[in-house]
Amino acid sequence: MAAPLSHMAAPPSVLKEFCPLYYLLNAIPAKVQRGFRSVLVYLTSLDISSDFVAVGSSIGMLYLYCRRLAHMNKYSLEGKCDAITAVKLLSCFDDLVAMGTASGRVAVFQLVSPLPGRNKQLRRFDVLGLHKGMVTSLAWSTNGMKLFSGDDKGRVVFSALDLDQGVCKPLLLLEESSGVVQVQYSHQVLLVSTQQRTLLYCTQNQEVLQLGTRPRKSSGRFGACFLPALCKQSDLQVFAARPGLRLWRADVRGRVEDTHLLKPLFSTQVPQFQLFPRPGPVGGYRPEDRQLGLLSCFFRDGWILSWNEYSLYVLDCVSQVIVGALESSGDIVSVSCCDNEIFILKGDRDIIRLSTSPEGLSTNCDCRSRSSSVTSWDSLHGNAPLTSSSSCEVGSRRYSAPLGQEEMQQELVVQAIRVKKKKKRRRQGEKLSWSRVRLTCSYWFCFLLQFAESWMGYSGPGCGILSLQVTDRFVWCLDFKGGLFCSPLPETGLNWQRFEDNVHQMALSPSGNLLWKVEQKSLTAFACAKVTVRGKRHWYKAVEQSAFVALSDDCAWIIRTNGDLYLQTGLSVDRPCARSVKVDTPCVFSQVCVGGGGVVWALSEHKALFYREGVSSYCSQGDGWKYDTVSEAQGLELMCVALGYGGTAWALDASGSLWFRTGICGSRPQGDDDHWWQISISDYVVFDQGSLFQTLLQATQSVATVTRAPVERVVAFLSQYSQCQPSLVSANGSGVWVASGRNQLHLARGSLVGTFWQNVVPRGTVSATRWTFITSSSVPHREGTFLWLAQSRKDLFCVWDQDGELRPTSVTLPPEVELSHLSACRDALWGLDAHGRVWIRTLSPSCPTGLTWTPLDLSQLGVRLVSVSCGSQNVWAVDSRGVVYFRVGTQPLNPSMMLPAWIHIEPPAQPIGVQLVGIQTSPNDRLLWALDNRGSVFVRIGLSEEMPVGTDWELVPGLAVAQLLLSSRTVWVRCVNGDVARRYGVSEKNPAGDYWKRIPGHAHYLTVTPQDQLWAVTPVGGLSRRLTKLLPQTPFRPASSATSLSGDDVDDEWELI
Asked: Where is the HPS5-like beta-propeller domain (predicted)?
């Protein structure tokens, strides 16, 4: 039996990171445009409350996320854009947020509240000229009438606010000889911690008292905090950090009553906070001597949160234990806590949330026993049962974010169910005696993560990965230097151990009981049974002059160096090798792969794919080889193939693309599909490298580019290893693994969506017909979509997509008119000619393609339009100067009647020479996006039935766009290079969405139906439509069951580490 590959682990903490804060990071851009300069945005400060998350940035912009509304607001200061170095929230009668900058400026925003009697207008108060250095700390009084601020020059400023009168009166309160690191205020006593001492300042009599009798011998960022829940000033107690892991407890007069010596607590193993797996190196420098830092009381009586740049600790001063620690993380910028949550700002853009429960659950729920434990960390890794006797209600003060499609924005309601005893075994997975549980978006996302968004990434063992194989328990890798490494299947990371050296190629049986290796120099194949990671191994000489080996649980297929193929049968743990029998082949093979049910595939040296017919348990050799025409028909140059569980075949081509086919079985070894389905691997567009979704993806290129797939072009590194056959894809019961030439592994443990572009030839046309344009609209009298096609500017055809033969109907254009642009809705067709004139064709159930064209009177505008877009009720347009216009009504009216008014809408502010050239509205008028002449896209925010023109424009970075497309619920684009991408996370509350994701395919022109079906004009002028196939996979554990999801809403995630 194999020995476990594990090392002594620290005991787990009750606090952990349940889910990365994608929604928060994604709402903050990584770059902004300042004139002609692109400026990086770094996150510099952080504060949280039960209702808000406030994040300061290096560009002087405060990002305030409302957890109740799942909406991000931005607040900026005029003038010089200083970094915001401190923020502080307060929720009293009004919601207030204070910020301090690097130049010493302090500003207070009184937020707008929808509640009756509350503030209805955003107001700002400024404190200028009193601070001489960077503001380091802020503190509010409970009623919001007093604000205290400290800077790194030792000054403490008191600002008295009268919100009713709109007055702010600042006053210099204290001036110390060293910088202020922390301030707190309670019961008319101000607690100030500086680099050299901690003092108490009584605001009633201006008395200053020092904690202890002398200042500290060594300066440092040591903070102090008041103990909460005390009712009068005389009862106030203070905790103060001291060098050498000491903690003072003092009274309100500064007298030290007790000293906690914490160093003995660190002599044993410190429990570490469990973080979600992250790409890249996660460690950092930690000084040899541990030290406390800034202090806050946290969650429970006697719990103290301490943090500095290098580490964070939660201490239980009552029980004298360490609750948890985050050490060697490096570059901790800011920390804030509220209720049972700790938010940590690390580095430039990483925010971590530690808590006892996932976001969206109340603080008194035990994450191991709550009724919704199906989405806890433990159950995500298969460690927790799906049963619970306790229930958990959602805290009314916990809110989450829009994390995807409209379906995810709604609450997931889980009803209690009854299970009959007879079906107990069959329905064990449904044995849930749940109370009614409501899960908000963030928690719903964690639920989906188990099933559909679970691509994980890991680092390989060393010098690149040449071969990869996985079994039900272990991952095996062969590097370029011939090192064979092994690791158990991961929970949070891979723990590699060197297994053998000087290995040319390796093969494992699916059960992991048989292992063969081919030695580098002799090219002799050796077999080993009863494989153990540790201990002695006995190798049996199997076959000489071997180039490639593939194993099933009872057979071995061997390709010799001269190209001959041999088979060994009857293998077992007691008989790991046997006599070889030659098998005829139609050509020289370079790779063989073996799947369940007696399926055998092979790749020739010219990358042709073959499958073996007649293989069964009674006839291991089979009847003969048959050429697979599917790969040839698609023009795929396959580099390596693998047969996985559930009758799925996987392949990597020379460009690094991943493909799959289904229905592979012994009776039908070629499978059910007549084509390969393509899957994108990390084809995301993000704002900048490492800027957001850092636990789901890692960008490798700059803004406005699509990230490369993590599978490098195989040909590039095979040029040096031409004698080796790579095996970079492998599958087991829990998912599919893909390796790259850059020492990285990628694991998919969830449902995937495959894409296939099907060529379409409308009846009456030929395959050589060249189309130039396509758009779509709903059919006014029946289901389906009308496709409006053109071969030039002088013709137009209409096709109903529900017509199996796709018979085109010719649509006559106005005399001597060449259409340059077309927009269609359910009841009208709007055409724009080369002179900027608009022609409207009315559509109706009795005449679905219309009868005549009516010119639209544009005398009111007196401009030349370059783009129009029709929704269900409204029309939007852009003129040659980039100005936007809005009109209610899609129909032309009688000239004798009053014409609908065109409303002028200001375009987004842009540099000289940059202007809008296109506009698109969704079929339901809920979304509006615009495109400028540089390929940048903008979204109109604030659209509603009450405000159909919206309120403002917002730049959506990440792509150079040539064409915009809007369905009823999301946005698609065609990039300048022809790539296709979709915007995920678009909703009414989040019209800008979350991120771009590239969709396999290349197009000259695109259209999308209201139901998100894509049609395209190919680069050579052909017509094609996008088909998708959902590949449900067993999440995390082979024994568990998958959830049925469909379509593009399943966003298959890859993570690159």
From this structure: 41-348
